[in-house]
Every structure is written in C-alpha cells, then in structure tokens.
Amino acid sequence: MARYFLDTGVILGYLRSALYAEVIEKTYSPFSPPNIAAMSVVSRGELVSLAYRHKWGMPKRTALEELLKKIPQVDINNDAIIQMYGEVEAFSQGYHPVKSLPMSARNMGKNDIWIAATAVVSNATLITTDKDFNHLDKTFLQVIYIDSALKL
C-alpha cells in the first residue's frame, strides 16, 4: 500500500485527461486499492481560482467537482500541519535549526508550502508537476516529479 498526495497540477492533469495523468495512473495507480490518494484543501482553492480566471463553463466546472468528490481532502487547520508549515518554510529559506539546505534559499509559494506540510503530516508521497518541491525530497518527504510536458 502506498499513500499519495496529489498536487494541484496533477489533479488538473486528471481533469484534462493529460498524458502525464495516464503515466501517473499506469506507474503509481494512486486511485487503485490498496493505494490511497489525497489532496490538500489548498489545491481545491487553487483549482476553483483557476476556473474563475480562465472562465470555465459549467461542463468543465461540473467535471472538476465530480473529480474532487473522488479525492479525500485534508484540511490545513491542524496544529501538526501548521508547525510543519513553519518548519518547511524555515528549511526552504535556509533557517532551519537542524536541517541544512544544501543550496541557496528557495522561495516557495505559500500555497506550495501548505501542500508540502500537509503531505508530510499525512505521511504521503507527493506527486507533483512542480519542481519547487524537489529540494524537500528525502528531507521531509518523498517527492515524485512528473513532467507535465510529456509527449509520446
């Protein structure tokens, strides 16, 4: 059994039936038992915002809501997640008291920090299309980067 945490770009790929979503499905089977897939409520907010910004019509919004019903969403209003948010951001900026960042500081978006912190506390492997998480791999959690520009 594997626990997977899906980043916003991955969920968007499933919505669009993108090639990289097929690759994720074939390689990791996040939705096939005994595997478990989940997401952050932060990703839900990002997707709703994306729908507004790109003026999605009702069919696409409905498809998004149907997809989101299938993915358990983890709330960030949790002390462990809030503490981990602080730890991940401190590490990314090179200020963590115990873990050294082996590169220059990384400016992560605040939503990405919430998503990473939630994945860490959920004890899940993060599947993402965003390289901004790569510096956290094997320090806080396992990160699987998927290139969203995959071509056949």
Structure notes:
By secondary structure, the protein is of the alpha/beta class. It has one domain (3-145): 5'-nuclease (Rossmann fold). The protein has six helices and five strands, in the order E-H-H-E-H-H-E-H-H-E-E. The chain has helices spanning 8-16, 19-28, 41-53, 58-69, 79-92, 110-121, and strands at residues 3-6, 36-40, 73-74, 125-128, 143-145. The chain has a five-stranded parallel β-sheet with strand order 3-2-1-4-5. The longest helix has 14 residues, at 79-92. The chain is globular and about 50 Å long. The model has no long low-confidence stretch (mean pLDDT 95).
Write the H/E string, N to C: EHHEHHEHHEE
Q: Residue ranges: pLDDT <50 for 5 or more in a row?
A: none
The overall strand count is 5
Classify the secondary structure makeup into a structural class: alpha/beta
CATH superfamily: 5'-nuclease
End-to-end separation: 29 Å
How many structural domains are formed by the residues?
A: 1
Shape: globular
Task: Please describe the structure with a list of short key phrases separated by commas or semicolons.
single chain, 152 residues, Rossmann fold, 12% strand, globular
In short:
The protein is of the alpha/beta class and about 150 residues long. The chain is built from six helices and five strands, in the order E-H-H-E-H-H-E-H-H-E-E.
Topology (elements, then pairings):
Layout: E1 3-6, H1 8-16, H2 19-28, E2 36-40, H3 41-53, H4 58-69, E3 73-74, H5 79-92, H6 110-121, E4 125-128, E5 143-145
Parallel strand pairs: 1-2, 1-4, 2-3, 4-5
